[in-house]
Amino acid sequence: MMGQDLAGKLLSTLSALLWTGAIISFKRAEHTPPVQLNLVKNVVAVGLFGLTLPIAGVSWIGPADLRTWGITIASGVIGLGLGDVLFFAALNRLGAGLSAIVESLYSPFVFVLSVAFLGEPATASLIFGTVLVVTGLIVVADPSKSKTITRAQMVAGMILGTLSMLSMAVGVVMIKPVLAGHNVLWVIFWRAVAGGVMMAVWLVARGTHPQKWSIRRDQWVPVLSGTVLGTYLATCAWLYGMKYTTATAAAILNQLSTFFTLILAAVWLSEPITKRKALAAAVAFCGGAIILAGSPTP
Prior knowledge:
Elements: H1 2-28, H2 34-55, H3 66-102, H4 106-117, H5 124-140, H6 151-179, H7 184-205, H8 220-244, H9 247-254, H10 257-268, H11 275-294
Helix pairs in contact: 1-3, 1-8, 1-9, 1-10, 2-3, 2-7, 2-8, 3-6, 3-7, 3-10, 3-11, 4-5, 4-6, 5-11, 8-9, 9-11
């Protein structure tokens, strides 16, 4: 049991590192419009998970009723479709370092929505942790201290990033009851399908010609590497980390992506780590850790 717990914690840490690599890769694909980027990412992810299901002995269709299908599809459209488009739009404006700090809003949103719609208790750690996360955002979001982006980019990026985290949180809270009775890989696969279809519909609604759905040749490497690292490998590491260790331990270790992103963004993207940014990341991380550590473990 001790060995499994250690393996779970290592996998959870690996998930955070893999997601950081994905963020860096997607940042290098900033010349690709967010909708096209998300469409390609979802299509590739569907293919990867579609191949994984039979290897894992899981049926593509699965024993699910109409209500389960509806929730799964809606969760994919909101969490993966809308949430990821907003995230990429925020990433293009804020850069990888600031985007990682905005991501800290995800945990408070999940727990607030869980209290409201799943009946989970509102604890002191939830309230205090949320205050810390918001404080971290206020610390970093002073446009006068930013030398790399404009005030308009900062404000727009923060709004888009916040809406992105809210969308992702809604998608996760929606799907939580389904996960209790269905295979997780099956859920991930069909959520990715729904997200991809949503992107295609969006492009058609905007009148974008199918020939323009693809991305530039020089953008394929960062897009594919980001998809494999983040949407596929990081998700798998997260799932198995959750399996072998406690949910609380796994979630706290996943939050290390904030620190990993700040460090790797400085190394690979030449984004400066200022004292203000480091302080904001530390405060936001502590808030997320307090929320997750104080939440009941199923």
